[in-house]
Amino acid sequence: MTAREQLFAVYKKCYEQRAVLTEAPQMSIDITGLTPENFDEKAVRDQISKVISYLLNVRNVDKLSIQEAVKIVDATYSEQPFWKNLILDYLSFLVQEEAEELSRKAELARQEARTILYEIKKREAEHKLMIKTYAEPIREQKFAIDGVRLITNYLNMVRKDSKKAWEVLTTNPGYFSPIIAVDRDGKVILTPEQAKNENKKIAGFLKKLSV
Q1: How far apart are CA 18 and CA 30, in angstroms?
Q2: Cβ neighbours around 43 below 10 Å, total
């Protein structure tokens, strides 16, 4: 049984005994004609909690540990099986309610994890597409720039400001990855002016490409 179904069953049993509970808090919700699917769970829970608290002679049974509540039940109703079982049923409801809440939170955590995983995969796919669309053509054109680094840094800016990122990519790609003006041996292969022109050529080339 679900916690909701258990709550309904406990209230129904207690409601049927209201004639002998003259000193207990009032149960004003007529359960007759209601079902586990259509009763007011919040209102019923509030009323039955007060009645069970009265039966145990405690301020609020919901605040007690289950172990503590069971000890009071055993000490008070060991010779009254109906009331003992009724109260134990309510305690069982509390346990089920907590279990369902933990399960709900766990499911929310799983959904959040799935969402994060989806976003990661989406970004990976986006990165691969951008590498194919831009970095590979850059390499094929033998431009003096690290195309992969350029696109990676570009994508980082896209997540913050896509409009600005595109503007920078197509006007000053060297912002994302410096123009390679010196080879691995430290030899100058492009003068500052040539590097500037290379940057312009790459910008013009990227502007003509589309995803």
Answers
A1: 11
A2: 12
Rounded to an integer, what distance in angstroms lies between the CA atom of residue 85 and that of residue 174? 77
Q: Answer whether 0.70 is exceeded by the pTM.
A: no
How far, in Å, CA of 119 to CA of 179, rounded? 32
> Which residues, at least 6 apart from 187, have a Cβ–Cβ distance to it below 8 Å?
none
Contact of 138 with 202, CB cutoff 8 Å: yes
Helix (H, G, I), strand (E, B) or coil at 137: helix
d(CA 71, CA 67): 6
Reading the chain (211 residues) residue by residue, the pLDDT tens digits are 899 999 999 999 999 998 898 899 989 999 888 999 999 999 999 999 999 999 999 999 999 999 999 999 999 999 999 999 999 999 999 999 999 999 999 999 999 999 999 999 998 888 888 888 888 888 889 999 999 999 989 988 988 898 999 999 999 999 999 999 888 878 888 899 999 999 999 999 988 875 4
In the chain, what is the straight-line distance between the N-terminal and C-terminal CA atoms, in Å? 54
With contact defined as beta carbons under 8 Å apart, do 61 and 52 qualify?
yes
Please state the domain extents for the chain: 3-107, 141-208
